[in-house]
């Protein structure tokens, strides 16, 4: 039986690579973008993720045509005015940066997750994966960027708590440096101190998500923040050229984020805590 995925913001960059990889893995893939475009083999849908009615229409169509949803990849994102403004300090930027970095970079993920959960809980299975980054651990780009990514991690953690026992899993994914077409066009060997040779292809991220969705122990990581490079190593997944991407965990201080590293003395571990190797971010 063909499974169905929805990738928000799937017309370019990470979303495009994820959607393409899922198509290759045999998924039926819907993608959203403002202009209704997407990679070959997908079902592209026009959607402004700041418009709740348009988002609801997307999920209604997916449910009507596919009969349900097995995977949501929250990837929609919008840059603030003047992307180069990320080199400015927060008080030097217009406050309406909030409208893109929080409204699209966070709220849109929550709204999509609500609709996905309604379909998935009824079916008793599914995966909600939100694209986050190491910007929730250390300063990266801007104050609002870090706020949105930290909130995505906590969102997945709390959703996981409320989804426990439903068969539906919510995770947040920390991506490393991504070899997008834009980044590769710069002709540099490293970016922000990280090697492009050991960065992640967008399709790598998609293959990791597909493998995660297939993991028989998926519910064990419900509510967790996971590092895509480390999941790739666990599942034996590499970039398009066969290289294994580096995890940036150490560069951003190491250690876990969600779930908490330990419980209070005498208290049991939360359901969903991983057994064996620690892979959460």
From TrEMBL:
Residues 239-281 are annotated as: Disordered. It comes from the Bacteria. This is SDR family NAD(P)-dependent oxidoreductase. Residues 270-281 have a biased composition (Basic and acidic residues). It comes from Gordonia sesuvii. Pfam families: adh_short. Signal peptide: none annotated.
């Amino acid at each position: 039986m063909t499974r169905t995925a929805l990738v928000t913001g799937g017309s370019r960059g990470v979303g495009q690579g994820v959607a393409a990889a899922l198509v290759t893995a045999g998924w039926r893939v819907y993608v959203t973008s403002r202009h209704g475009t997407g990679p070959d083999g997908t079902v592209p849908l026009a959607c402004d993720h700041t418009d709740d009615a348009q988002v609801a229409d997307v999920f209604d169509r997916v449910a009507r045509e596919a009969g349900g949803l097995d995977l949501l990849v929250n990837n929609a994102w919008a840059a603030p005015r003047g992307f180069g403004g990320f080199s400015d300090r927060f008080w030097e930027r217009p406050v309406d940066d909030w409208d893109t970095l929080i409204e699209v970079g966070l709220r849109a993920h929550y709204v999509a997750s609500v609709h996905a959960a309604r379909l998935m809980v009824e079916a008793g299975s599914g995966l909600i994966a939100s694209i986050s980054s190491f910007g929730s651990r250390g300063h990266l780009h801007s104050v609002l960027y870090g706020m949105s990514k930290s909130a995505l991690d906590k969102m997945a953690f709390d959703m996981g708590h409320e989804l426990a026992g439903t068969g539906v899993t919510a995770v947040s994914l920390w991506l490393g440096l991504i070899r997008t077409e834009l980044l590769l066009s710069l002709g540099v060997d490293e970016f922000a101190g990280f090697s492009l040779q050991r960065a992640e292809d967008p399709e790598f991220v998609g293959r990791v998500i597909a493998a995660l969705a297939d993991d028989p122990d998926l519910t064990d990581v419900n509510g967790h923040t996971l590092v895509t490079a480390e999941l790739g190593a666990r599942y034996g997944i590499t970039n398009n050229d066969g290289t294994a991407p580096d995890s940036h965990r150490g560069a951003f201080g190491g250690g876990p984020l969600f779930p908490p590293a330990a419980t209070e003395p005498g208290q049991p571990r939360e359901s969903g805590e991983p057994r064996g190797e620690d892979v959460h971010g």
